[in-house]
Specification:
Blueprint (H helix, E strand, L loop, with lengths): L3 E7 L4 H9 L7 E8 L5 H8 L3 E4 L8 H14 L4 E4 L8 H6 L4 E5 L11 H8 L3 E8 L9 E8 L6 H24 L4 E3 L2 E3 L15
Parallel strand pairs: 1-2, 1-4, 2-3, 4-5
Antiparallel strand pairs: 5-6, 6-7, 8-9
Helix pairs in contact: 1-6, 5-6
This protein binds 5-O-phosphono-beta-D-ribofuranosylamine.
5-O-phosphono-beta-D-ribofuranosylamine binds next to helix 1, strand 5 and helix 6.
Length: 215
């Protein structure tokens, strides 16, 4: 089966992008990373991707009159590179329902919490403040509502007594780098089925669970 021509959309450092690029080097991986696109021309991830020989592009949202014009330009770039699948990896722009519906089933995102808990920003701060004992990350299909689509993979970590948002975030990020390639492998491989919010068909490997560090 031909590889999915995949674009990664970023806004910043791109550590998840790097983990996807690395995983996609495996000859049997079902996705090929052909484009890294940022809404911020100065995003460090763009330079990292370029150094790996991947096509990069910036579509600076600030120069467009509105969301529709920005997305039209994004869409044009994606079509020009014959993109068939999109991974959002720290892409900090909300996408319109029309863009999302065009890419339905071919657009995935990583979020630093165990959805449906802690949608939105500052997830690690909020998890610590609430005293939850388990936190983590989620890869999900993107739908029009923010951080709300069908879940492909999750990983959990314990929240430790002395955690700060930075220490907790660093442990969650390690797991993000594991589950995002796993989820892309599954989603690009066309074997997943989506039924409302339930994703099935991954032969039991769609969920990674990390044991709590309880001593
Ligand atoms: C990650 O925590 C990701 O879950 C969130 O934004 C952050 C991006 O980090 N959506 P990086 O650019 O991949 O290093």
């Amino acid at each position: 089966m031909s590889k999915r021509r995949t674009a990664i959309l970023i806004s910043g450092r791109g550590s998840n992008m790097a983990s996807l690029i690395e995983a996609a080097k495996e000859p049997s991986f079902p996705a090929e990373i052909v484009l890294v696109l940022s809404n911020k021309p100065e995003a460090p991830g763009l330079f990292a991707a370029k150094a790996q020989g991947i096509n990069v592009a910036a579509v600076d949202h600030k120069i467009y009159a509105g969301r529709a014009a920005f997305e039209a330009s994004l869409q044009k770039m994606l079509l020009a590179h014959r993109i068939d699948f999109i991974c959002l990896a720290g892409f900090m722009r909300l996408l319109t329902p029309s863009f999302v519906s065009h890419w339905e089933g071919r657009l995935i995102n990583i979020h630093p919490s165990l959805l449906p808990s802690y949608k939105g920003l500052d997830t690690h701060e909020r998890a610590i403040a609430d005293g939850v004992k388990i936190h983590g990350c989620t890869v999900h299909y993107v739908v029009a509502e923010m951080d709300a689509g069908p879940i492909i993979a999750q990983a959990a970590v314990s929240v430790l007594d002395d955690d700060t948002p930075a220490t907790l975030g660093a442990r969650v990020l390690e797991q993000e780098h594991i589950i995002y390639p796993l989820a892309l492998n599954l989603a690009a491989g066309r074997s997943l089925k989506i039924n409302n919010l339930r994703v099935t068909g991954a032969k039991g490997v769609a969920c990674a669970m990390v044991s709590p560090h309880i001593t």
